[in-house]
Structure formats: structure tokens, C-alpha cells
Amino acid sequence: MQNQQDNYNITPMDNEQKLFGLSYRPTPSDRELEWDRSKVLLSKTDSKGNILYANEAFIDVCGYDDFELMDKSHNIVRHPDMPKVVFKLLWESLNKGNGFHSILKNMSKTGRYYWVFNDLKVIIDDKGDTFYTGTQKSIGSEIISNSIEPLYKKLLQIEKASGVQSSENYLLGFLEERNTNYVGYIDNLHKVGYDNMVTYNASTPESTSEGKEVNIPKKKGFFSGFFADNGKSTPKKK
Fold it and tell me: Could you read off the pLDDT of 150-187 as tens digits, one per residue?
């Protein structure tokens, strides 16, 4: 039976030569790729995630020639530091016909990494065929170092120790604590530049990561059940 994770395209194919069309797989480097961050990287894939088109900016940054990319899985640029649960959520969203926003650590042909904000959209043509278009842009380094990298490292550690489902359970709890979902969390980071989302605290006023009091949208959830008082005050003892 095929591994369920393969359905989400979150693990490399067993035959790496088939995946990459190359005689080698890049070795990840701890060096970040220098690239023109004003560029917008565009790609189009079929319903299985195989590349049909990549613009010149995408080709320049990832370092592969166009003939090396065409008809190859888009995970040719996936960095092994990426937690698989992100792609599980991605494919679940796409399979429902919804787009997806994410922050990705990609790997170039040289093995160097580069971070991007990825806007993925679902396109259905006149024949009813499904395609995906990706728009990738540079993302601020402070967002990565302060918010995304620590979270992704934690998720990756959990995946290696206990599997993708345990990683997903942790991520859902992390997001529930902030009263949002993954796309909402990523969009907020992209918009304001840091994690200012509300976290519940049983002993202190509800506040942002900067300590400013805020109004939490009323939303039922696991953590809100613990910390919300539903507008009722505790009677004082006489």
C-alpha cells in the first residue's frame, strides 16, 4: 500500500533520478542564497504538482535550467528543513479547491537556501482540468528568525520523533492558542512583520506578543474554553 504521506506530495519519490532528472541530489548548505529580492518567482503545475512553466526569475533563483524543471515535481526545490505537515495542509486545501498561503524554505541547485512567501492559487480551465499557479516573493528576515524558523524546527523535531500526525496536533494547538489557522497566521506575519496574534494566558490580561492588551474575537475553541469567562464575573464572598 502506498504511504499515505505520498498523497500529499510531502516525501521525495523513492527514485530520485526520476524526480530530479539529474545524476545527483543537491546537498543542503547552511549558506543563504543571495538573490534579487525584488523579483517575483512564478510557476505553474498540473494537478499532481508537476511543473509546466517557470518564469525566468524562478529559474535564475533556483539555479536549474528550464529543461531540468519541466515535468518535474515542484518539490525539486523543497528544502529538507521544511516540516511535512505544512504540505499536508497545503494539499488538503488544494483538494478542496482553495488556495493556500505559506512561508517556505526552498533549496537551490547549489544546495543554498532561500525563504519565500508563497501564494498558491487553484485554476480550472474550460475543459475542467485543474492547475496550480504559485507566486513567490521575498519575506523579511525578522519574520523568519523570530517566528517561522523556531516553529518549523519544533515541527520537524516532532515529525522525526513521532510522525506527521503528532506534528499536526502540535501545530493545530499552536494556532488554536492564537485563535487562527495556518493561513491566517502566515497572512498576519506577512502583513504586520511579526507575531502579534493573541495568545491565551490564564494569569495575565489577554495581550499581544508585545504585551499590549487587545480584544479577542469571540470564537469557540479548545483553549478559549479554558480561559474565556463568557462575560460573567465571579461573585465575591461575603
Answer: 999 999 999 999 999 999 999 999 999 999 999 999 99
Is residue 84 within 8 Å of residue 164, measured between CB atoms? yes
Q: DSSP states of 79-104 as a string?
A: -TTS-HHHHHHHHHHHHTT--EEEEE
Give the integer Cα–Cα distance in Å for 122 and 100: 9
Measured distance CA(179)–CA(40) in Å, rounded: 31
Digit-coded pLDDT (tens) for 93-136:
999 999 999 999 999 999 999 999 999 999 999 999 999 999 99
The count of other CB atoms within 10 Å of the CB of residue 80 is 10
DSSP string, 4-52: GGGGGT-S--S-HHHHH-SSS-PPP-SSBPP--TT--EEEEEETT-BEE
Among candidate residues 182, 177, 184, 219, the one with its CA nearest the CA of residue 199: 177
Inter-residue contact 118 to 135 (CB < 8 Å): yes
Count Cβ atoms within 10 A of the Cβ of residue 17 and give its class: 0-12 exposed, 13-18 middle, 19 or more buried: exposed
Give dist(CA 91, CA 81) in Å, integer.
Answer: 19
Angle, helix 84-95 to helix 164-177, in steps of 10 degrees: 80
